[in-house]
Amino acid sequence: MQGREQLLLSIADDELILGWRNSEWTGIAPFLEEDVAFSSIAQNEVGHARALYELVARDLGTTADELAFDRRPDEYQCSELVELRLVPDWARTIARHYLYETADEQRIKALMESEDLEVAGLAAKIDREEAYHRMHAHMWFDRLQDEARFVEALEELRPLVERRGEHIAEFAHLWDEMTIVRRSVVGATW
Amino acid sequence: MTDEQFLEYVQGGGQVETHDEMPDEYRAKLIKFIEMHGNSELMGVLPEREWILRAPTLQRKLALTAKVQDEVGHSQLIYRVVEDLGKPREQCLDDLISGKSKFHNVFHYPTKTWGDVGVIAWLVDAAAIISQKALLKCSYAPYARIMKKICWEESFHILHGRDVILTMMNGTDEQRELVQEALDRWWGPLMQFHGNPIPKEDDPMYVWRIKSQGNGEARQQFLDGYVPQIWELGLTVPDPKLNKRDDGVWEFTEPDWDELKHVVTGHGPKTEERLGLRRTTREETAWVRRAVLAQAA
Amino acid sequence: MGAARGSRSGGVIYEVFRLERKGQPFQHAGSIEAPDAVFAEWYAREQYGRRGESVALWVVPREAIAEIDEFVDELERNYHRVDGYPLKEKLKEARARAGTAPAVDR
């Protein structure tokens, strides 16, 4: 697998797994209006993952769904940060959201400079959506910055932003649940 | 306006707005009815949310997330209407969690497979949409207005449900078996969904024109619309008595109304667990509401 | 539009108006609860725009809206209403004078 594929897959995997973790708040977010808003963010992330998987899938002769779901756990290239199960801790959830979006901005802006026009174009689209995520993260940051638990959460999670290569213990369980239906009838169309 | 005049007014198609004078009984019945709807949308999220995590394709994951998001959105719309009628959201949530108020029977049952995901979106949502369309003419206008948005969004859910089911029915034997097995389990609750068949003249909801349709009528509409859809896929309905008479009326085995009452009064297989989840997450996130909403001007 | 601004613990209620497409008027869509205007914009966009159903939204604190529902007309000024202009009889009379009344009296 080439460098480009590796990079795109690591972003796609981050977005897929973060989207998955953010979806765990569906129906149980701190209040209803935020529940709806946070769900859109989760959907955007899965949407970004899908678009990135589709690019890579074409090069590798496979499909986005196969990349998303049919790899072994050790083949995923997401960061430790996105793998953490944080429900029902809203402080850590927002801390992760804030840290991730801040770091991701750099990564996506770099991709927007890519010589590969397709990658650059997709990165620009992702960036336009993530601008909203950043706004949302900042909105919550402003509201929670005086809460001790939020400040602690930021400090705790900051070092994990670039931790990649190993999967946390919970990831195996996540992968298991994520792929359980798909594996129940292998090769089926759903 | 006297209560009799008000009754005549609503029965003649009159609409009521939030600040209008209304009989205490009308207001009380309205709050209870609408609150139960809000509770149901919110509790309906819980059986489905696990399957977002397990969705077997990215498209299904997105569609299901959007469906469940709509349901949370519906509960928001509905609780706002209840609050403007005089019962604050937090009190509604308190009463839901304590078991004091009710939610629809179907959300007390477990979901076991991806077959359930399809059957719920296809048939449970269909049963719900029949009731919801009848509410478009509710005498209480703020509720009728949100029903418009709710019905529009529900139509996407049914499309999603159909798509999931048809894909499985066109798939493997195991997938078809998943659908049939789920249908076998959900048929009972579906038949109970519209409530016991009290004549509509005896149903205060109809008398006050909160509902514009009786329970029996809604059930017949459901059967008429959806049994043919079920049969045309080669699926069977687990009721040997199910049959459409020459006069167009559907016959069926009378549902167990005691069971329905037992379930909606908090004794369904999943009631405790789901209310427990609500309770814990609400407690765990109370600090957020204090930090964020309490600061409001 | 909304209930009494009585004491309630919680955020601020905002009313949302939506423009379905250009040329249409903004219409009241519903209300949301939010900590402040920044959150309110977010939540309005989500509740009333996530399916692309609106081209624009107005988000206004409920308290900023003055509802008027009393209109005084004690002396029943009929010149403001159609029934203040009884034309039928006069037209009948004028046609009769001019000889232009229709053959069959309707």
Structure write-up:
The complex is a heterotrimer of chains A (190), B (297) and C (106). Chain A is built from 8 helices and no strands. By secondary structure, chain A is mostly helical. The longest helix of chain A is centred in the N-terminal third of the chain and has 29 residues, at 32-60. The radius of gyration of chain A is 16 Å and the shape is globular. The model of chain A has no long low-confidence stretch (mean pLDDT 95). The two termini of chain B are 37 Å apart. Chain B has one domain: Ferritin, core subunit, four-helix bundle (Ferritin). In chain B, a hairpin with a 5-residue loop joins strand 1 (243-244) and strand 2 (250-251). By secondary structure, chain B is an all-alpha fold. Helix content of chain B is 68%, strand content 1%. In chain B, helix 2 runs antiparallel to helix 3 (58-85) and helix 5 packs antiparallel against helix 6 (141-169). Chain C is of the alpha+beta class and 106 residues long. Chain C has a domain at 12-64: Ubiquitin-like (UB roll) (Roll), CATH 3.10.20. Helices cover 24% and strands 21% of the residues of chain C. Chain C contains 2 helices and 3 strands. Chain C has helices spanning 37-49, 87-98, and strands at 12-19, 27-34, 56-61. In chain C, strands 2-1-3 form a 3-stranded antiparallel beta sheet, covered by helices on one side. In chain C, a hairpin with a 7-residue loop joins strand 1 and strand 2 (27-34). Chain C is elongated, with a radius of gyration of 25 Å. Mean pLDDT of chain C is 87; it is low at 1-7. At the A-B interface, helix 2, helix 3 and helix 8 of A face helix 2, helix 3, helix 6, helix 11 and helix 12 of B.
Key words describing this protein structure:
heterotrimer; A: 190 residues; mainly alpha; Ferritin; 8 helices; 72% helix; C: 106 residues; alpha+beta; Ubiquitin-like (UB roll); 3-stranded antiparallel β-sheet; 2 helices; 3 strands; disordered N terminus
Can I get a quick summary?
Chain A has 190 residues and is an all-alpha fold.
Structural class of chain C: alpha+beta
State the largest interface. A-B, 44 and 49 residues
Uncertain segments of chain A:
none
The total of helices of chain A stands at 8
- Give a short account of the largest sheet of chain A: none
Instruction: Give the class-level CATH name of the domain at 12-64 in chain C.
Output: Alpha Beta
**Major beta sheet summary of chain C:** 3 strands, antiparallel
Beta strand % of chain A = under 5%
